[in-house]
Amino acid sequence: MKFPYTDIVLEHFRHPRNVGKIENPDGKATEGSPACGDMVSVYIKVDPKTTTIADVKFESYGCASNIATGSIITELAKGKTLDEAKNITWKEASEALGGLPKIKAHCSVLAVEGLRSAIQNYEERHGLVKEKKPTTVEVVRQRLRKVINPLTGLSVVRTNLVQDIKVKDGVVRVLVDLPRDHQFAHTIKDEISRLKEVFGSAYRICQPVSKGVILAIKR
Amino acid sequence: MTSAIGSICHEKEVLFHTDATHTFTRVPLDMKKITVDLVTVSAHTIHGPKGTGGLCIRQGTQIAKWVDGGFQEFNLRAGLENIPGAVGFAKAVELVTPKEIKRLQEMRDRLIDRMLAKIAHSTLNGHRQKRLPQNANITFHFVEGESITLHLDMRGFAVSTGSACFSRSLEASHVITGIGGDHERAHGSIRFTFGRYNTVEDVDAVVRALTDIVEELRSISPLGKNEEKEEA
In which band, very low, low, confident or very high, does the pLDDT at B173 lie, cut at 50, 70 and 90? Predict the structure, then answer.
C-alpha cells in the first residue's frame, strides 16, 4: 500500500517538533483514549503578562497524521495569544502540512482538540472562563460523542450505547446500555465517569448506582 | 477448525467455502477428509503470476455462471483462458518444497523469539505453533501500527498492521478482535509474512530496525512510561 502523505507530513512524522512533556505545565489535556485508538497529550506554558503561549509540547500514541498534526500544531501555537491559538482549526493545520487525507481527519483532529482543551484547562485553572455553558441534555450528548465504543471504534452515542440522558435538579443521569458481560463494560463506564468534561466541572461524579447508570451531582 | 465448521455446514445443509489463499501449499488441506465445498487459492501468495487464482469446486456443487459472453472455463466465466497465468501458477505450485516450508517456519520462529526477547511489552497474537509457517503477528504496546509500518517502509521493509488507522474503514482488525484481542491490541499489531526470497539476515535486520523504531515511538507516546519505570 502506498502511504497517502505529503512530504511535509512525512518530514514532521520523522522529526516531530516539540515532543515531550512539560513539567508543571500551566495547562494540559489528553484527547482520545488507548481503548479505542489514537491519543494525544498537549502541555502548555503561558506567559501571564501577554497571555501568549511561551512553550508547548505534545505526546502522541497515534499514526503518522496524528504525530504530524501534533507537531505542526505546536509550531503554529507557539508565541500566539491564547485566543489566537484556540482558533487554530484542523483545516489550518492540515494546510500547513500540505494537506491530509480526509479519512485521516479523525486521527489528526485530536491534536487540534488537544491544544484547545489544554488552553481551556489553563483558563479554568486561572478563572478566565467568562461564560459557562449550562449543562443541558444536548451539551452532555455532545460531550459524550468523545467517548468511543472500543468494539466498533465509533462513539457511544452513535452506536446507541447511550440510551437516555436526564438533567434534573443538579443531577445528570446517563443510562448506558451495557450488559454485565459486555467485553468493554468496565472500560466504557470508566471512561464516561472519568471524563469530567462530559458533565462540566461543577459536577461531582458518583459511583454507578445500578447496572448501566452513571450519575453526576452538582457540587 | 476447518473440519469442525465443515461438519456443522454439512449437517445444516449449507455450502462451505473457505479462502485458502494463504494456507495453499503451506498447510495440508484434504478435501477427502474435510467437508468443504469450495476452496479459493491464489498464485501470488506462492510467487506465481499476480492476477491468477483458482476455485476448487467439489463435484456436484452448483455454481451460477458469473461472467456471461462465452463458454470458457466450464461455462462459468466467459473470456479466453489466461494460459500463461495458468501455466505460471502450475509451475509455482511445483516449485514449493517441504524444505521451503520448513525454512519459512524457522524464520517465523526466529522472528517471534527475537522480537519478544528484545522488545519489552510485546505480545504474540495467536498460537506459537498453530499458525501459518510464514506468518507472525506481534503487538507492540503503547505505539500505533501505522506509524511502525511507515517507519519500516522508509527502511525498506514491507509489513502490514491491524490498526484502525491503517484501514480504509477506520476499523480495527476483525481477526485480532475475533481471537479475543481488544482495540488496543489491534492498534499496535504488526503482521510479518515471509516468502521464498527472505533470509535469516532479513529477520535479524527487521528485529534491529523495529527495536529502534518502537523505542523512538514510545519516547513520544504518553503511554507506558510508568510501567517501564516500575519494572526498572
Answer: confident
Whether ipTM tops 0.85, in short, is no
Q: Degrees (nearest 5) of the Cα angle A86, A91, A94?
A: 110
d(CA A14, CA B216) in angstroms, rounded, equals 10
d(CA B175, CA B181): 9
Instruction: Copy the grid coordinates of residue A53.
Output: 503561549
C-alpha cell at B166: 491503517
Shortest Cα distance from A116 to chain B (angstroms)?
18
Cell of B44: 501470488
pTM exceeds 0.80: no
- What is the strand order of the sheet A52-61 is part of? A27-32, A39-47, A52-61
Does the distance separating the beta carbons of A64 and B183 come in below 8 Å?
no
For residue A63, which residues of chain B lie inside 8 Å, CB to CB?
144-147, 163, 165-166
pLDDT digit string (tens) for B17-72? 999 999 999 999 888 888 899 999 999 999 999 999 999 999 999 999 989 999 99
Residue B68, phi then psi, degrees to nearest 5: -90, 160
Confidence of residue A119 (pLDDT cuts 50, 70, 90): very high
CB–CB contact A13 B147 (8 Å): yes
